[in-house]
Amino acid sequence: MPKTIALVEDDAAIRENYLAVLRAQGYHVDAYEDRPSASRAFNANLPDLAIIDIGLKEEMEGGFLLCQQLRNLSPTLPIIFFTARDNDVDTISGLRMGADDYLTKDISMAHLLARIAALFRRIDLMRAPKAQNDETVIGELRVDASRMTVSWKNEPVALTVTEFWMLHALIKHPGHVKSRQQLMDESRMVVDDTTITSHIKRMRKKFIQLDAQFDHIDTVYGMGYRWQL
């Protein structure tokens, strides 16, 4: 049975473009142009994944309200914020509300489809019995690549899919510098340097919230980033 995706986007041309691409991939897509119509639909029946624009018609933060509603209805339903806005405040606000990832509208369709597939894969893996050990342990860090989960000092770290693969790239060879291009390649994203920097900042903050002394994600100016032992 095809997965159901809810697409909440107020721009008709963009909405139709995404609809065509997602349906061509075999997904069942329900599209909504504003928060009230999406909200009513979510109360009646939950999708398998939601892609939500932040600004919806006259509601500049309507997408945040929908995310809160969905999180109250389901703690695990994958949510992607999809927006023309790319500033750190919006991103952090969205992720704190429980979104799984945050993508700007200038990313490629291939990148969007890869993110959707990765989120579905993570949900399926979390539900499946654990069949093999695919963990990497470095000091207090534990990364399970098969389930896409991370813990620090036995506390879970809620990374987005993008952040997970960037961290995974950094810990493959601890102490070795990964360039921004290498991080983009590993996480299957094509973005500018500022966006990479924002992802790294958010990842650091999540670890620091658990451990104020955390200092293992090191910036090597002019070169990239590394996991410092």
TrEMBL record:
Keywords: DNA-binding, Phosphoprotein, Transcription, Transcription regulation, Two-component regulatory system
Domain of life: Bacteria
DNA-binding region: 133-229
Residues modified as 4-aspartylphosphate: D53
Record-linked SMART domains: REC, Trans_reg_C
Domain Response regulatory: 4-120
Residue ranges occupied by any OmpR/PhoB-type domain in the UniProt entry: 133-229
A biological-process GO annotation: regulation of DNA-templated transcription
Entry coiled-coil feature ranges: none
CDD domains, per the entry: trans_reg_C (cd00383)
GO molecular function: phosphorelay response regulator activity; transcription cis-regulatory region binding
A GO cellular component annotation in the UniProt record: protein-DNA complex
Name under which the protein is recorded: Chemotaxis protein CheY
Species whose genome carries this gene: Alteromonas australica
